[in-house]
Specification:
The complex is a heterodimer of chains A (193) and B (234).
Chain A (H helix, E strand, L loop, with lengths): L16 H9 L3 H23 L2 H18 L10 H23 L2 H7 L5 H10 L4 H7 L3 H13 L3 H8 L3 H19 L5
Helix pairs in contact in A: 1-2, 2-3, 2-4, 3-4, 6-8, 7-10, 8-9, 8-10, 9-10
Chain B lengths: L8 H5 L5 H12 L2 H19 L7 H12 L12 H23 L8 H6 L1 H12 L4 E7 L2 E8 L4 E7 L8 E9 L2 E7 L7 E6 L6 E8 L12 E4 L1
Antiparallel strand pairs in B: 1-2, 2-3, 3-6, 4-5, 4-7, 7-8
């Protein structure tokens, strides 16, 4: 853990995200601003991707970021990186929002009439992922693994809905999500100690 | 249904599970260190997918967030080192409780919003105690095109059931939930009139071997109309 230092020191390396979060947990608003600058583009982008409607996405991103402030003390570095913790909060909130939308709109019908429901997301995801390692690794998955993962992560579908959309069995979809993520993990070299 | 719980690791890491499945998997994680490690890595991996979504947010978002932060007190730290796990469980319980409120009001979908969660503290406490019970068992089953999830704790002698996606019961009609003990039905709650799903907390679960759903007039009946819409073995 880096020594605390309330004075910004431009020449010093930027503190690691985990250290920022620890400072935020102590009520350090300046640290929160730095954390915001680092993570808000991903939080907002993820909300946009999942929720789609820009005004609602902004709302969800705001809720998620304030939740980060509010609950920073609960972050446990032993359980994962700070950015994963923050993005998990944002992802969960965005998924909740689209699932809540289901209550008022008939999602089945929307899915049926929506143009190219999942090719579209894969394509969009792929386009956005250009120049990124993630793209290469996603391409290394089987079609079913990739579609299952992107539908769930970028669209907020439950694995049951994914099974419906892809016309695959539930056990298959569950298994593809897991072994697809494992393959992605190995390709991206993800680990944490 | 402790079958192939490991395969839920993928959907879990992607938030592609429902609240009760999440609770079930959380409970599993608490007893399985290697799974916890795997899930942590899969979550890190899933998070990398967010890298690709990066978009510069409008400046007003920062202003709005910082303004809210300035007037928002921070929550206390988790009680113990296992706070992360406890946090997810509390969250799940609150979500389920909020679902109870929301489902009763409208459709068979969880509507999880902070305000509702706060409004549902009482149910949350009950549901938390059931989900947290060391002997809680979870049973799920398909039923008349819908889905039912039942969590029972023998030590608390309480249970919670969530029913989703049943056919429209019709005007003035409702679905009623039953615990069946040695062929004797016992009322476990009536869903809202016209509701195709809902959740109910009930007690006196000891000895129950089946969970059933019947189709009744709104408000429910003293004994179930047979044949039942469906049932699940407990």
């Amino acid at each position: 853990m880096a020594a605390r230092d309330d004075q910004p020191r431009p020449l010093a390396p930027a503190p690691a995200t985990g250290d920022l979060l620890t400072q935020v947990a102590r009520g350090d608003e300046a640290a929160f601003v730095k954390l915001y600058d680092e993570l808000a583009p991903r939080v907002y982008g993820l909300c946009r991707r999942i929720v789609r409607d820009p005004a609602q996405a902004e709302e969800v991103a705001q809720e998620a970021l304030v939740e980060v402030w509010r609950t920073a003390g609960r972050y446990d570095p032993a359980k994962g990186s700070a950015s994963a913790w923050v993005l998990t909060i944002a992802h969960r909130r965005a998924v909740d929002r689209v699932r809540a939308e289901q209550a008022s709109t008939d999602r089945e019908r929307r899915v049926a009439t929506e143009e190219v429901p999942y090719d579209d997301v894969v394509e969009q995801a792929t386009a956005r992922l250009e120049r990124q390692q993630v793209r290469r690794c996603l391409q290394g998955l089987t079609d079913l693994q990739r579609e299952a993962i992107t539908l769930a992560y970028y669209r907020g579908y439950s694995y049951r809905e994914v099974a419906d959309l892809l016309g695959a069995g539930l056990p298959t979809v569950k298994t593809r999500m897991r072994d697809g993520l494992i393959r992605l993990r190995d390709c991206l070299g993800v680990s944490f100690a | 249904m402790s079958d192939d719980i490991h395969t839920l690791a993928g959907p879990y890491a992607l938030d592609a599970v429902d609240d009760l499945e999440r609770a079930r998997f959380d409970r599993h994680l608490a007893t399985c260190d290697s799974c916890a490690q795997e899930v942590a890595e899969l979550r890190e991996t899933a998070t990398r997918l967010a890298d690709a979504t990066e978009v510069t947010p409008p400046a007003r978002l920062k202003e709005a967030v910082l303004a809210e932060v300035a007037r928002t007190p921070q929550a206390r730290r988790a009680r113990a080192a296992r706070g992360g796990e406890a946090r997810w469980r509390r969250w799940t319980a609150a979500a389920v409780a909020a679902g109870i409120v929301a489902i009763g009001a409208a459709a068979a979908t969880y509507v999880v919003e902070d305000q509702r969660v706060r409004d549902a503290q009482a149910q949350a406490a009950q549901v938390t105690s059931i989900l947290d019970a060391p002997d809680a068992v979870v049973r799920t089953g398909d039923l008349a095109g819908g889905r039912v999830t039942v969590v029972l704790s023998a030590s608390l002698n309480k249970g919670v059931a969530v029913v989703q996606g049943l056919p429209d019961p019709g005007t003035g009609k409702a679905y009623q939930l039953w615990l069946i003990k040695d062929r004797q039905p016992q009322n476990a709650g009536v869903l809202g009139a016209g509701a195709s799903g809902g959740a109910r907390v009930f007690s006196d679960v000891q000895g129950a071997d089946q969970f059933g759903v019947s189709h009744e007039k709104a408000g429910g009946a003293g004994t179930p109309t047979t044949p039942l819409v469906g049932s699940v073995n407990l």
